[in-house]
Amino acid sequence: MSARRLRPDAWALMAPALLVLAAVTALPTGYVVWLSLNERALFRAEDFVGLGHYLRLAGDARFWNALGNTLYFAAVSVALELALGLAIALLLARAGRARAFAYGAVLVPWAVPTVVSARIWEWIYNPELGVLGYLAGTPVNWLGDPVLALHAAIAMDVWKSTPFVALLLLAGLQGVPRDLLRAAAVDGAGAWTTFRRITLPMLAPVILVAAVFRTIDALRVFDAVYVLTGGGPANATETLSIYAYRVLFQMLDFGYGSALAVAMLAIAGIAALAYARLLRGGME
Amino acid sequence: MIRRLGTWLGLAAACAWSLAPFAWQVLTSVKPQAELESLPPLLPSTITLVHYEAVFAGHPFAHLLLNSFAVAACATALALALGSLAGFALAKLRPPGRAATLAAVVVLSMLPPVATVSPLFLLAGAAGLRDTLTGLALVYAGFALPLAVWLMAQFFRSVPDDLYIAARVDGCSLLGAFGKVMLPLAVPGLTATGLLVFVFCWNEFLFALTLTSSTAARTVPVGIALFPGIHEVPWGEIAAASVVATAPLVLLAAVFQRRVLDGLTAGAVKG
Fold it and tell me: Are B202 and B194 a contacting pair, CB within 8 Å?
């Protein structure tokens, strides 16, 4: 029985999925590029402006501010999530009888809807009634100060996203052969040496995958920050997604907004390329 | 001994850090209004359900919950149906070009939602699907499909080829072999994929915000983000709404812990 003869059926089975994917993701992706080349106010005909919007983008200080915020947000939160996630994964691997409870607890931030997590932290950060100010002993306007606000948003993202990293790394840890660890112990290697010379190198591919997944996600951050700060104060926490959303749906400028969206697409594309290279490296 | 103690302290800290913010929201939701207007007290003197009553009495919150549930359930069903068919075809029939197809699926899963929100807004308008549950469910199914296809392909790959070939030799049609032999074996994979897709749909905000404009199709996250306050922010009610919106997911994650972990780590770890 050769599976070869059945191949035409394979495309028939995939057709419905590919059709929906084409309609909901691929077609709009092409359409957004077309939109970005046109001047389009709502209820008006389109006007072809070529690369005009991209020239405007190059000189738009607010775009560069949003890009800087997005990159800083992604870099700092992903770095913290990896460090904290690795620590939690190492702890979970030794949880023993408390495993089910510990896994369940760590999964809670993952299960909390992003909008809810923004509301939870907004309340914690509240300048007069927030529990964080109470614990600090002095009221602090966490979300009112440009520098504090961006870091407050990062702390929220670290809380929400570290579980994913921790659980991914935990699965990676379980793939480290026990014999190797035992051999190291027999040879008299200490815990730190074993970790640095065996665990960390064996874990490196999973750490990379987690880093790429999280980076792609952090670069497109929208709801968490939008609900927490609205992009303020004074655009200090405005990310690219928030800026694009505002131009599209608050200023109703679909042409320039779409150009911002294409810029997002380009950044995601670079991240996706990095991931593809990684994946190919892992397959070989 | 000291190392064991360190592990336990570390674990306790990790659990506390994970649970405390949500626990604080639960406490806030049952505090009497007067005790929300100053801090301390940290703990409520009595437990009250007035904020929960207010959420359901004063707002169309029950309607939003129903919308969220309908959209997430339909989108999950659609993504599972289409995703398992495609995943099965990719993993077991091995059509030429499957590597490129899988790569395209992975790339599509990385699309930033904001990049397609303006065309989808216009397309949904042209198709008459703006502010409808159908429109939202279709968009969610489309955005969840890459994940569903990818995960189902991973899970089907772990089912032995022989079982499929035996079923075909015994006279099962292609769809018969898929439905009667392969699908039952892939139930753990279906559960894991379904859970992740459902959570994604239940939590989604950007499309829900832009593609809906009234209670007819608005979902819970939009309701919570735009929670109306007449004079000041109603923290008690927001907390109550948050707890109601989160409880089903925390419950699902607790009951299906194994499956959720499988889904989160499949593909990323196994390659």
Answer: no
3-class SS shares of chain B: helix, strand, coil, % to 5:
75, 0, 25
Distance from CA of A110 to the nearest CA of B (A): 9
The whole-angstrom distance between A265's CA and the closest CA on chain B is 6
Mean pLDDT of B175-185: 89
Measured at the CA of B43, the angle between CA B37 and CA B49, to 5 degrees, comes to 75
The architecture (CATH level 2) of A60-283 comes to Orthogonal Bundle (1.10)
Q: What value of ipTM does the predicted structure carry?
A: 0.91
Q: If you measure CA to CA, which chain A residue comes closest to B119?
A: A28
Residues A46-102: pLDDT tens digits?
A: 788 888 889 999 999 999 999 999 999 999 999 999 999 999 999 999 888 888 899
Alpha carbons A255 and A65: distance in angstroms, whole number: 20
- How far apart (Å, rounded) are the C-alpha atoms in residues A273 and A267? 10
Residue B142 touches partner A, C-beta closer than 8 Å:
yes
Instruction: List, for chain A, all residue ranges whose pLDDT scores fall below the cut of 50.
Output: 1-2, 6, 283-284
In tens, the pLDDT along B109-137 reads 888 999 999 999 999 999 999 999 999 99
Q: Is B165 touching A (CB cutoff 8 A)?
A: yes
Q: Are A56 and A256 in contact (CB under 8 A)?
A: yes
- At the second CATH level, the architecture of B61-265 is Orthogonal Bundle (1.10)
Greater confidence (B203 vs A280) lies with B203
* Residues on chain B touching A139 (C-beta within 8 angstroms): none
Task: Look at the pTM and tell me if it is higher than 0.90.
Answer: yes
Q: Do B14 and A91 touch (CB under 8 A)?
A: yes
Residue in A109, A111, A213 nearest the CB of B268 = A213
* Buried b or exposed e, range B17-39, using 16+ CB within 10 angstroms: bbbebbebbbebbbbeeebbeee
Contact A283 B37 (CB under 8 A): no
Q: Going by C-beta distance under 8 Å and a sequence separation of 6 or more, which residues neighbour residue A28?
A: B116, B119, B120, B123
CB-nearest to A222 from B121, B203, B206 is: B206
Contact A247, A21 (CB under 8 A): no
Q: What is the mean pLDDT of chain B?
A: 90
Are the Cβ atoms of B261 and A244 closer than 8 angstroms?
Answer: no
A66 touching B (Cβ < 8 Å): no
| pLDDT of A282 | 52
Comparing CB atoms, the residue among B114, B145, B245 nearest residue A241 is: B114
Contact (Cβ atoms closer than 8 angstroms) between residue B31 and residue B236: yes
B115·A262 Cβ contact <8 A: yes
The closest CB to that of A265, out of B14, B112, B239, belongs to B112
